[in-house]
Predict the structure.
Amino acid sequence: MKILHTSDWHLGRQFHNVSLLEDQQAVIEQLIQFIKKNPVDVVLVAGDIYDRSVPPTAAIELLNSVVKRICNELNTPMIFISGNHDGAERLGFGAKQMKSAGLHIISNFDDMLTPVVIDTETAGEVAFYGMPYNDPEQVRFSFKAQVSTHNEAHQLLAGKITEQFNASQRNVLISHCFVDGAIESDSERPLSIGGSDRVSHEHFLHFDYVALGHLHQPQKKGEDYIRYSGSLMKYSFGEQHQKKGFTLVELDHNGFVSAEHVELTAPHEMRILEGKLAQVIEQGKTDPKNEDYLLVRLQDKHAILNPMEKLRSVYPNVLHIEKPGMLIGVEQELAQAKLSRSEVDMFKDFFIEAQDSELSTEQEQAISDIVKQLSASSQKKVKN
Amino acid sequence: MKILHTSDWHLGRQFHNVSLLEDQQAVIEQLIQFIKKNPVDVVLVAGDIYDRSVPPTAAIELLNSVVKRICNELNTPMIFISGNHDGAERLGFGAKQMKSAGLHIISNFDDMLTPVVIDTETAGEVAFYGMPYNDPEQVRFSFKAQVSTHNEAHQLLAGKITEQFNASQRNVLISHCFVDGAIESDSERPLSIGGSDRVSHEHFLHFDYVALGHLHQPQKKGEDYIRYSGSLMKYSFGEQHQKKGFTLVELDHNGFVSAEHVELTAPHEMRILEGKLAQVIEQGKTDPKNEDYLLVRLQDKHAILNPMEKLRSVYPNVLHIEKPGMLIGVEQELAQAKLSRSEVDMFKDFFIEAQDSELSTEQEQAISDIVKQLSASSQKKVKN
């Protein structure tokens, strides 16, 4: 049996005020083309399908077209669980009515305990249990149980599910959680503060495969069969070196056989460029991937006017600029020289950029006087 | 064949800051109980299922439980169209996947041209065409047609549908529009300004039954078989005398047989009470329906402190107060006496209400002086 395990689509996500919907569509298109050529028995999406509980209309339309193509046209069932970004009730509308068309949206505990059973020649009956994302308070409330951490909540939920096991079936779990010891990325929203969101992988040992969502880096944790597929695409510059895609899993009558990461490529990659402004611009002139979403770290030591405009002449999708070089310069000068001197220097840089000429002696004197005056008055305030 | 025609549920509506969801749930419960005792072949909801394009989660949960009970438990198909209050794309998510469970949500023109066909012994095959609400711009854009009014848009859409007719089938249309000459209520949101939203009933003559939504008063227009079911319940005080409910329609092999209005009663009716404060309070003490949602028109001629608090001691759900009596009093005095005199009177009323005693002669003099002073200074300003 072939299982396509994906998660964290975050449809409708904005990145530095840019909509990622077209990139998301293009990446999902690759996933659909893969299924066309390499049919699978089921597609699992382990939560965070949308980026927020009330997703934009365009994200809903995209998901609608995707389920139409995968469930209806490719005749491949899909199982979704709600993640911490999804609005469970909103996502779950019509879930009961969609089941017969092979679209299974598991967003509440009742549905959690009724597995989706898929029967194949290669693995027999396999029961898919979806554990919708819930915080410990919801679990405590729903099961009237002493539960105060995510770990205790998962222990309880996993226990409820294993009680349902049918000995003649293999069992797959879909869950959205933070398994202890796994690697974070900086585009995930913490489930709770201070590490209390961590869950032991040991609750999951009885399953034949565990399809996890939440962490954006593909990885396995504890056992070969307990895996994060990682997010559909990069959602932060910190993920620039992560290989995004989905996990292709194989099960047979005895359970887990193998898992393989299949790469997907977004039209715009997220990358970090470092260098002096002139170097970065020069490089951009011949960069075949010049439309990528970029964070540029400028190493110039002087102030630059309109660096975004200059960079975007070659890299149209620069989304953010950092200037570590310039900041180091200021700090060094602060240590070496008086504050008034350094601020005059800054102004001289600015004047050159803005006017294309240097300050006259009189102008420099005037600026210097003003800065001294301001500095004196602010020191007076500090003393008071 | 028995058709239950309803419309304008407006799930999630607020009325004077009060959620109507519990009332909506109770009224729909009556509708469900009716179907249990008197099975029907299909339930049509002619638009404005939700009150707004992004409905509150609780409204989504209510609709979800309703479709589960009607489609799944009572095994009765439902056909929805989107109205001007609904978010068509949002409502339409998963529509394709829900069809096999008997839930048909028609929210775009593609689905409009593919009828839901229901076959019964009593009427043979009946084709149900849903025309999702669209303004003329959307129709012009979608069909690349010269359309500038709602009437032209409906002519075109009805024409597209009648082209699809299969001679062996009866045909039912579900539409959300304002048929020319029909009676408005004050809880409908106008489709456009200045009467350009009116549609002739003549476009609909070729159908065997036309299930309309948008207008909140149950009524027929043009022909016996062209009908508004009216809204699920009252949504304004102006509708206090309207009989709310649904329309029960019968078709046979030759088409329309009969239509009957079946009444539904909300736990809280919307009513207007008129009288002096003391009378209204007296009446409230023995009013068995004292929890209704009320607009109270006070006929007292003097100012009253905290009338809402006083009324709510007997009628807890007074939502709005009008004081026509007091306003007439003020206007009359304005005409007869000087402004300064009338404001002193107002203050005397207030003082009695607040302190339970009358102004002393000195107090009255002081207030009168202040009012004169203020009045003189404001007249000075007007002259300047």
User: Anything to note?
Assistant: Chain A touches chain B at residues 54, 57, 60-61, 63-64, 67-68, 71-72, 87, 89-90, 92-103 (CB under 8 Å). Residues 233 and 247 of chain A are 13 Å apart (CA to CA).
